[in-house]
Amino acid sequence: MSIPSVIRAFTSSITLLLAAGIHWLPIAQTVDSSALPAVLVVTPRDTAFTEAILGISQELRGYARMEKLVLPPKPNSDSMTTVLVRVSPRMLVLVDNLSVSAYRHHLARTDSSEPVTPALILMAAQVEAEIPTIPNAMAISYEVPLVTSVLKVRTTLGMPVNRLGVLHREFMAASVADGAALCAREKTEVVGAVLPNRGRGAREHAVRRALRELLNERDIDALWIPNDAYLLSPAMLTRVWLPALRTHALPVVVGVEALVDTHIGLGTVAVLPDHRALGSQAGNIILDAMDADWKVAPGKILAPLTVRTVVSRTRARKAMRQTDAEFLKADKVVE
Amino acid sequence: MALLPNSTEPRNGCARNAAPDPAGKPRRLLCMLLTLWAVWPATLRAQLLVYFPTPRHPHEIEQALFTRLPKQSVTVFSRYKDFESRFQSSPPAAALVSGPLSKELTNYRVALEGTVGGKPAEPYVLLSPSDSLDPSNTDTMTLAVVDALGRRKQSAFVRELLGRSPPLLRVTKTEDLLYSLNLGMARALLVPATHGDYLARVSNQELNTSPIPDSERPILRLMVREDEDTAALVRGLKQMSEDALRVLGLEGWQ
Q: The pTM is what?
């Protein structure tokens, strides 16, 4: 079959489709985007941020012009300065700690008497530590609040969570206490086991003992494991968590999808921020700032509102004692 | 969330290893056209686009619809923005949407209306952890709403319901409303009454419901394009079981 005949076949198919009444309607109003205020999204080159940036662009469409600065792994502040001068943004979105750090370096080299462009920090780790270093900035945390996880587990698994066990180190005490207060409104009691940040009390045997006590003597009906790289190190996983949890059917709630993965087999449910919705949330904050003459609430940290769940079918069925349970409310189900 | 049943299944009899055939050329052309039809962007053949705020997961909505519409090309969206961009780029034959959104779809007519308690409309309420609220005293109160119409139209809809323009916290999904309340990001939720009932059931908090006067709006509508034959679609929806209807938040159609 020759190429022209393929083209003819193709065009005739389109003609048929159009004749069948399938057509495009110019519903969206045409907007001259160059006349719109600019918002600069500063991001590392990583596909992990793609969905969130798409969410921002969807929200801003027709209201503001989104420009993007993709940072190399070792950014220099000159390139950021050049882009800031060229784009002249009314607001910045700093995605990940790398962007926050690059912008901090840029600010250190600029005239401190000049007004600082409002900024929104997104998808950065330890945002509480980052936000005081950037003037006129607010943030959306990447950590899912405890109370959101509790509600999500309740609706996804259809199980009540009356006493939630939480094993954490001392540095998380304040955030766990805040979470516990919010959980109390939902009639969920948080049963904490606190370990010191370092030293003998945080070694494997101490973690093992604290975990066993929590599982066997505190009458909990679910366990939440915080995103603490030390507590979730490979050694801790294989020598403490997995052996201790093997004999229990409790739902284990984690904040990392890989921990629900069949190979690791730790979590029953992972409750994670929904990246696209995180972008939408950011977009709405930007548009609210625009409506308020580009004013933000400096220092304010908001929680991510929309979350997604990944459920381990095998472990969830075991926890629920229902061999045929399906999980239609879960966003993803793995074996 | 998009599921397009049958859209990529082979529909023709093109055998890869068939013996040479003198009439092969026209047959190949036919096969190509059929293949083109099979793999042609399913967007073009999407018959029914579905988006409405609901406490149900899109998987549940898909399952409820597919039981009665197995041959239809149905796409269920969980976010307004995704629905909007798909609708604009490729207008479907029909759309199953909330009452307020149905009014925005020009060139479409109402083919079916979902009912609860025999009525095709339901009131909106304010749901709050505090005492009952006075809807006429909400000017400075942050209300959380599902962004189901787009920014400007959502604001206009709230203004139409309350007669004022309180600050709004726009969320993506119905379940996010409860999180916003728990985290103190909103003072109250503005929702259809049935969603208020659901959220109050899911939450262990004491939540108060404050009715909004004259706030009845259509619940769910099947909108069809004037020039489309959607009789099978209408028939399929009307044959849905009570359980499946309940997933859509309905008791019947009219």
A: 0.82
